[in-house]
TrEMBL record:
Species the sequence originates in: Hibiscus syriacus (Rose of Sharon)
Chain intervals with Basic and acidic residues compositional bias: 145-155
Name under which the protein is recorded: Methylesterase 13
Organism lineage string: Eukaryota, Viridiplantae, Streptophyta, Embryophyta, Tracheophyta
Entries under InterPro entries matching the protein: AB_hydrolase_fold, MES/HNL
Gene Ontology MF: a single term: methyl indole-3-acetate esterase activity
GO BP terms: jasmonic acid metabolic process; salicylic acid metabolic process
Region (Disordered) location: 136-155
Length: 155
């Protein structure tokens, strides 16, 4: 079963406003979580995730976002490809990267959808590397601009 088939099989739509209305949330069949999201994670981590996961409301996911260069564009972005992710295929990860290119792309081999479970040391190493990437030189103070955005709740 490929990742698309697995995703279709695992998702469960919830209808908070009745079956005659569009679904309001999506949940996942707990018996398929290991195959879909945690295919490289330990049994203990899968058990923890299974009892911790909640349905995902669809309204925020479907909401159209308007992003500006002033706010969204001012934040440095990096992407960590999870090489063995069955929930977000390599094809989709590539498309996401190409549609909104980050400053840098990292690859985490042997990682499933949850690298904090499947490859915590590798993820830590990448996050430390990201923290050490020197800021790009820009005109004006990025720190001052970011502080202004945060204080005015416009980020």
């Amino acid at each position: 079963m490929n990742s698309n088939d697995l995703m279709r099989e695992a998702r469960i739509f919830l209808y908070g406003n009745g079956r005659n209305n569009p679904p309001t949330a999506v949940d996942f069949d707990k018996t398929l979580l290991r195959d879909l999201l945690f295919n490289h994670s330990s049994a203990k981590d899968v058990a923890l995730a299974s009892v911790s996961m909640r349905p995902i409301p669809l309204e925020p996911v479907l909401e159209k976002l308007t992003l500006s260069d002033t706010n969204y564009g001012s934040i440095r972005r990096f992407y960590i490809k999870t090489q063995e992710d069955r929930a977000i295929s390599m094809y989709l990860q590539k498309a996401m990267i190409e549609s909104d290119p980050p400053e840098r792309v990292f690859r985490l081999k042997g990682s499933d959808h949850a690298p904090f479970f499947s490859r915590p040391q590798g993820l830590h190493k990448i996050l430390v590397e990201i923290a050490e990437v020197p800021p790009k030189q820009t005109s004006g103070s990025t720190t001052t601009e970011l502080r202004h955005l945060l204080e005015n709740d416009t980020l």
